[in-house]
Design goal:
The chain is built from 20 helices and 27 strands. The protein has about 625 residues and is an alpha/beta fold. Helix 7 runs antiparallel to helix 15, helix 15 runs parallel beside helix 20 and helix 16 packs across helix 20. Strands 3-2-4-1-10-9-11-15 form an 8-stranded antiparallel beta sheet, covered by helices on one side. Helix 18 links the parallel strand 25 and strand 26. Helix content is about 35%, strand content about 25%. The longest helix is centred in the last third of the chain and has 21 residues. The protein binds 2-deoxy-2-amino glucitol-6-phosphate. The site of 2-deoxy-2-amino glucitol-6-phosphate has 16 residues, from helix 10. The site of 2-deoxy-2-amino glucitol-6-phosphate (AGP) has 16 residues, from helix 10.
Length: about 625
């Protein structure tokens, strides 16, 4: 987590770094800081709270300087306060650092440095690292780049760092292991940008280099970037990529929150996900990364899915899809559990890793573990060029566009879209789906974007329901089959942005415990679409009603039975059962959104959370 922004060039660094930090606040937002170097003067401003607070503090101060580093923090070591905020200086006051990640052996290093007379102001691992760099530099009498490299060989943990020496303000050193870092290159190397993702510099340059694991870059004004491998000192040719991102994609576009914008982007996002893959007129699904490894997929004895949070919920939907449509057994694992329990992986297994950000530390570690056991790993990611996209053997991007709201919305539906395409394709090739069934599914998938579009019109209706339940202390979400994971996802959305305690359950499990919670103050959201265990779910609704629970039911358009019993019904258009999660999710996203707004919560940046979880 944490966001890093840096600038070195001929413009004023302050506005670039500050607005860059605001774009990266999704990565962490408990404190922020900036250091600016102007000829012989260096100014540091840090504050607990959001970048806006930092901005207020810096506003009337000296913010001059053509070199700057900024940081927005998600605390790991040391509480969020002014002192623990980055940047951090070395004891001499010459070296300055911003850091995203965790130095696991910082305590040992701290003790060694303390024994040599170093003192520390903060509780952070980062301040230890900058002093280690200083110690190495002095001891070896070497340049900063070399000192950073040598220091990092002694470090256990994860990092993306940017460092400079106030005595040499024409150079920034950056390095990464486990946390992302992008470098933007201005014309003729006259200016450089450094950031945790490319969004802080898209209006300045389209040329970017993404550092790979264990790489260090020396960025010097007027010179080409030099990249070295930290461990073996070899040089790497910088791979300059053209950025496809544009400014509009990372702005709110008239919506009050990114989350609402992203909910409304889903029709297009789903379309973009299957564009060029779902050829409805020909009745075929083309996916290069699956086609190129088709024998592996068709011979797979099992698919193991690893993911976290919402992506894990998408994995659960995929379990139903692959088993139902392609008859391939599936196991869905929390990446954080999988990586630590010595899992059994066979050579005929395919591991699918799902991640919006492509940076989730546990998912990345699970991939590395699966690969070390000889598994073939397929990635489903949204962020192009992300660590997971690069670590997997192959994969498919969701093409949802940047998702900035911390609560995942379009990431979920586009992940399901990709996984559904894979399941349909494999189902057909394995002979589990006839050509006509396959064709019908394809036609139906091509209608999903317009059905989502239609569904979004219920926004005001949902706002009214939200107003009734906004003060509920608890909420239960129930679903069966394909919609059981949607119940989990609905509950996660509500708790993460509104702080209302919510639980998702398979509807039939209710009577094994949760039914005890039901009384007249308990809203229960039940997904009761026409297909898939409809009658059973209707019985569950009756059971809740007889205990005076309040029912908000998601039903198929035209339903009359549930309408009679439920307190509120939200209709979704008819579709294939396998595709219902793409529709039933939408009202649940909107319900959480409106409840959170009415409760005065920070929808896009909920407390204690960060968009990409790059720590364990
Ligand atoms: C979802 O709303 C979350 N904020 C969170 O659960 C998220 O899905 C999880 O951290 C995984 O992230 P990833 O998809 O980027 O790997």
């Amino acid at each position: 987590m944490c966001g890093i922004v840096g600038y070195l060039g001929n413009r004023e660094a302050y506005p670039i770094v500050i607005s860059g930090l605001q774009r990266l606040e999704y990565r962490g937002y408990d404190s922020a800081g900036i250091v600016l170097n102007n000829d012989n003067e260096t100014n540091l401003y840090k504050a607990k709270g959001k970048v806006a607070t930092l901005k207020k503090i810096a506003e009337n101060k000296n913010t001059k300087g053509k070199l700057g580093l900024g940081h927005t923090r998600w605390a790991t070591h040391g509480i969020p306060n002014d002192i623990n905020s980055h940047p951090h200086f070395s004891n001499s006051g010459n070296l300055v650092i911003v850091h995203n990640g965790i130095i696991e052996n910082y305590n040992t290093i701290k003790k060694e440095l303390s024994a040599r007379g170093y003192t520390f102001n903060s509780d952070t691992d980062t301040e230890v690292l900058i002093n280690l760099i200083e110690e190495v530099k002095l001891k070896n009498n070497c340049k900063l780049g070399k000192a950073v490299q040598l220091a990092l060989t002694n470090v256990v943990g994860a990092y993306a760092i940017a460092v400079f020496d106030i005595q040499k303000p024409d150079e920034i050193i950056v390095a990464r292991l486990g946390s992302p870092i992008a470098i933007g290159i201005g014309e003729d190397n006259k200016e450089f940008f450094v950031a945790s993702d490319a969004s802080p510099f898209i209006e300045y340059t389209k040329d970017a280099v993404y550092l790979d694991e264990e790489e260090l870059a020396i960025i010097k004004l007027g010179k080409n970037i030099r990249i070295r491998k930290i461990q073996d000192d070899s040089f790497v040719e910088p791979n300059i990529q053209e950025l496809k991102l544009n400014l509009e994609q990372i702005e709110k576009g008239g919506f009050d929150h990114f989350m609402l914008k992203e909910i409304h982007e889903q029709p297009n996002a789903i379309l973009d996900t299957y564009r060029g893959r779902l050829l409805a007129d020909k009745g075929i699904i083309k996916m290069g990364s699956v086609d190129n490894h088709i024998a592996k997929f068709l011979n797979a004895k099992r698919i193991v899915i690893v993911a976290c949070g919402t992506s894990w919920h998408a994995g659960l939907v995929a379990e139903y899809l692959f088993e139902d449509l392609a008859r391939i057994p599936v196991e869905v694992e929390y990446a954080s559990e999988f990586r630590y329990r010595n899992p059994i992986i066979n050579k005929d297994d395919i591991v699918i890793a799902i991640s919006q950000s492509g940076e989730t530390a546990d998912t990345l570690a699970a991939i590395k573990l699966a690969k070390s056991k000889g598994a073939f790993v397929f990635g489903v990611c949204n962020v192009v060029g992300s660590s997971i996209a690069r670590e997997t053997d192959t994969g498919a991007y969701t093409h949802a566009g940047p998702e900035i709201g911390v609560a995942s919305t379009k990431a979920f539906t586009t992940q399901i879209t990709v996984l559904a395409l894979m399941a349909l394709k494999l189902g057909n090739l394995k002979g589990e789906l006839s050509n006509s069934e396959h064709y019908n599914f394809i036609q139906e998938m091509s209608l999903i974007p317009s059905k989502v579009e239609d569904l979004l019109k219920i926004n005001t209706e949902i706002e009214k329901i939200a107003a009734i339940y906004k003060d509920a202390p608890n909420c239960l979400y129930l679903g069966r089959g394909y919609n059981f994971p949607v119940a989990l996802e609905g509950a996660l959305k509500l708790k993460e942005i509104s702080y209302i305690h919510a639980e998702g359950y398979p509807a039939a499990e209710m009577k094994h415990g949760p039914i005890a919670l039901i009384d007249e103050s308990m809203p229960v959201v039940v997904i009761a679409t026409k297909k898939g265990h409809y009658e059973k779910v209707v019985s569950n609704i009756q059971e809740i009603k007889s205990r005076n629970g309040k029912i908000i039911a998601i039903v198929t358009k035209g339903d009359t039975v549930v309408k009679e019993i439920a307190d509120h019904v939200i209709e979704i258009p008819e579709t294939e059962e396998a595709f219902t999660p793409l529709l039933t999710t939408i009202p649940l996203q909107l319900l959480s959104y409106h409840i959170a707004v009415m409760r005065g919560c920070n929808v896009d940046q909920p407390r204690n959370l960060a968009k990409s979880v790059t720590v364990e």
